[in-house]
Amino acid sequence: MELYLATQNKHKIEELSALLGNRFVIKSISELGVVDDIPETGMTLAENSRQKAQFIADRFGVTCLSDDSGLEVDCLGGLPGVFSARFAGEPKNDLANSNKLMVEMSNYADRSARFVTVLTFHQNGQFHQFEGEIRGEIMLSPRGNQGFGYDPLFQPENESRTFAEMTLSEKNVIAHRARALHKFKTFADENLKFADE
Fold this sequence. Notes:
Layout: E1 2-5, H1 10-20, E2 25-28, H2 45-60, E3 64-73, H3 94-104, E4 112-123, E5 126-138, E6 154-156, H4 168-174, H5 176-191
Parallel strand pairs: 1-2, 1-3
Antiparallel strand pairs: 3-4, 4-5, 5-6
Helix pairs in contact: 1-5, 4-5
């Protein structure tokens, strides 16, 4: 089954492709001629995820999976949240976002946070959402050089390493996106027809 990933983020495409395995033929929306970021005007991750899937569904009518993820820091009232990718403003910049986060948190002892992903699957006019999260802490300074975004600052609960100190396969065992994708795969196994069945 062909599945278009409704994102231009190469890191998300890499993670989702690795997690989806071979049940789907993964396609990029660039193959549909979409070259710009899909607008995100929602106030929640679920709204933005749905908006991305709706954008692709309305224009192309293809089976697609969208992702909106964010880091929610407890002492900042859930920020950066839906603003995670643009926390430091435009253009999107991982280092600037991380630096702003460290400055914003500099006066707080509470370092607790969570990463959240909401996936939206669209097929034949139907939309289904799947959420995954992982709790952890924000480090005082970045550690590691794997991953992207806030990975060098986020250390998951019960781990001694940040996401950026883990390989992609290690991260994909526990991460928020993997947890949401596990729910999607369970749904797919129970509800979708594949060519090999």
